[in-house]
Design a protein that fits this description.
Elements (H helix, E strand, L loop, with lengths): L1 E2 L18 E7 L3 E8 L11 E2 L6 E7 L5 E4 L2 E2 L5 E6 L5 E10 L5 E8 L17 E3 L2 E6 L11 E7 L9 E2 L7 E6 L5 E5 L8 E4 L7 E11 L2 E11 L1
Length: about 240
C-alpha cells in the first residue's frame, strides 16, 4: 500500500497539510470488482464526509492491470454514510492497481495508491518496450514528443493531434473534466503513478504536460481528451532517463 503525500495549491486558502488515511476494500464480482473507499481524517481517525470538487468530481479513480494492458478512469459515488463505492468492470481475474485522487474540504489534494486482486496472485511485472510511434485513434493521428523527459524534473511532454486521413491539425478539442487533456503515467512495476493535466488552450492541436516523474525507468502513459462530446484515449510507452 502506498499513500502519497498531499500537495499544496498555489493561491488557495490555508489548508491542513496532512495525509488522509484511506481504507480500500475490493470484493470480486462476476464482471470485475466492487470497490469500497473510505477516507479517514488525519489524527482523529474519523470518517471524512466532506469533499470539494477536484476537476468537477469529488473523487477520481484510475484502475490499471498488473501488466498495464488495461486502463480505466472512473468516478466512485459517495454514499449516504460518506463511503465511496464503485462497481468496476475488469477484463479478467487478476491483480490491479487503484489510484484515487480527491480533495477533502479544508485539506490539500490527495493521491492514494493501492494494489488489489480479484483472485490471482501478485508478482507479474509488465514487460514493456519503449513505443513512441504515432497512433491512429478515432480517426486521429496522435504523435508523442517525450524527448525532454527526465526523472526528477518537470520537463514538457507533448502530443499532437492531426486528422488521420488528411494530416491537417485538429483544433476542435473540448474541455474534459475541467482540463484540456489528462495524462496518467504508471511505472512498469506499478510502484509509481503520476497524473497531470494540460494547461494549453483547449482548441490547440498541440497538447503539453509537465509531469514530475520521480525515478528513471519504463512508464506506460495514457492520454485522454475530448472532441465532439467523445472522450478518446491513447497510450505510449516511455523510457524515462
Amino acid at each position: 500500500l502506498t499513500q502519497r503525500a498531499p500537495v499544496t495549491t498555489t493561491g488557495a486558502a490555508p489548508a491542513v497539510f496532512a495525509a488522509y488515511p484511506v481504507d480500500l476494500r475490493a470484493t470480486p464480482t462476476l464482471a470485475g470488482a466492487r470497490l469500497r473507499i473510505a477516507v479517514r481524517q488525519p489524527r482523529v481517525d474519523r470518517l471524512e464526509r466532506r469533499f470539494a470538487l477536484l476537476h468537477e468530481r469529488p473523487m477520481h479513480l484510475f484502475v490499471v492491470s498488473e501488466g498495464l494492458d488495461f486502463f480505466t478512469h472512473e468516478h466512485p459515488v459517495q454514499q449516504a454514510d460518506g463511503v465511496f463505492m464503485l462497481d468496476v468492470t475488469l477484463p479478467r481475474q487478476g491483480a490491479y492497481m487503484a489510484i484515487a485522487k480527491f480533495l477533502p474540504e479544508g485539506g490539500t489534494p490527495q493521491v492514494f495508491q493501492q494494489a488489489f486482486t480479484t483472485g490471482a496472485a501478485f508478482g507479474r511485472v509488465a514487460r514493456l518496450v519503449a513505443d513512441s510511434a504515432p497512433k491512429i485513434v478515432d480517426g486521429m493521428r496522435i504523435s508523442l514528443d517525450a524527448s525532454k523527459m527526465k526523472a526528477g524534473e518537470t520537463q514538457p511532454v507533448a502530443i499532437r493531434i492531426d486528422d488521420a486521413a488528411t494530416g491537417a491539425p485538429l483544433t476542435d478539442r473540448e474541455e474534459h473534466l475541467g482540463a484540456g487533456a489528462h495524462m496518467l503515467a504508471v511505472a512498469a512495476d506499478m510502484t509509481e503513478a503520476v497524473h497531470d493535466h494540460s494547461r494549453d488552450p483547449v482548441g490547440a492541436p498541440a497538447v503539453s504536460f509537465h509531469p514530475l516523474i520521480p525515478r528513471r525507468g519504463i512508464y506506460k502513459a495514457w492520454f485522454r481528451f475530448q472532441r465532439a462530446g467523445r472522450v478518446s484515449t491513447v497510450d505510449f510507452v516511455i523510457d524515462v532517463p
